[in-house]
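User: Structure with adenosine-5'-diphosphate, C-alpha cells only please.
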Amino acid sequence: MKNIAILCSGGDVSGMNAALKRFVEYSKLKGMLPYFVYNGYEGLIDNKIKKADYCDVAGIISRGGTSIGTSRSSRFMEETFREQALKNLHALNIGYLVVLGGDGSFRGMQKLSDMCDDISFSGIPSTIDNDIAGTEYALGVDTALNVIKFSIDAIRDTASSFGRAFVIETMGRECGYLALVAALTSGAEMCLIPELPYDLGSYKKNFLKQMDDGREYFISVVSEALNNTEEIATWYKSELGMEARIMVLGHIQRGGNPTVHDRLMAFHFVTHAIDTLLEGKKSTVICYNDGGFDIKKIEEVSFRGSKISEELLSLGREYGSH
Ligand code: ADP
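Assistant:
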C-alpha cells in the first residue's frame, strides 16, 4: 500500500503547517498518495480522512497551529474506537501513518500499531514543552521560546521604567526547559524550575545588595510546574519592599509565526519519517540528538521522563548566587 496519512494530536505547535507542506510534497515525490486526517485521533475514528494535494498546503507555512486541526480523544483510549480507526485506514488502503504529537499521542500510536500488521507508524515529537525523552528537540520549541523572548523584552521595558518586579510564568508542564532557556536568553534575574532546588534567602541577600547598588527592577521567570507564581510576587513585596506584577504567558506561547528553525526542523522530521516508513520500520519516533536525526522505538520515548541537559542545568544553578 502506497497511501500515506498524517495527523496532529495533542497540543498544537508552530511548525506543524510546515510539516504538512513537506508531507504532501515529499510523499508525492516518492510516488505515494498523501492523505490528511482532520482533527487528530477523533478524526481517525470519525473517518475525517481526505486526499491531500499541493493546493491544501499553499500559503500555510507562515501560520502557527495546524490547518488540519488537532484533538485530545478519550474515545481513542478504548479498543473498539481504535478498531474503528483501523477500519477507516484499511478502507482507504493507507499503509503508513505519520503522527505529530507528544508522548501521549505516541502511546496511542503504539496501541494502534499493536492491533495491526499491515500499517506502519512514525511519530514526530511536537510539543513546546520539550519534555519528550529520547529527543533533544521537539517541533515548536524554538517558536515558543521566541514568543517568550519577545514578551520578556517588552515587559523589561515597562519594568525598568516603573521600578517594578515582574514574575513571568511559562508553560512546560512538569518540565522546566522553556523557563530555563527563556530566563537565560532574556537576561532574567531569577529562574525557578522543578529540576533545580532554589533558596529564596540567597536571592534576597543578592537582590538587596543589587538594590543598594541602584537596581530598580527584577525579572523572574518561573515554570508553571512549581505553581508558586503568586507566592513569588508576594515575596518581592514582603521581603524586598518592591511592587511585583504577575504575567502568565499562557497560550500565546503555542502560537505565532513559526521560526526559520522550526520550519526547517519540520521539513527534516517529515523527510526522516517518510524515509523510515519506506525502509519498512513498523513503529518508530524520529528523534534529534547531537546535531542529527535518529530513530527510536516508542517505548524509548513515551514511557520515561525527559531530562534537561547537564550543560543547561549548570547554567541554571548559577541563579541566586550573584
Ligand atoms: P500529547 O501527545 O501532547 O502528550 P496527550 O497526552 O493529551 O497529548 O495525548 C493525546 C492523545 O493521545 C489522547 O487524547 C489520546 O487520544 C491518545 N492517547 C494518549 N495515551 C493513550 C493510551 N495509553 N492509549 C491510547 N491512546 C492514548
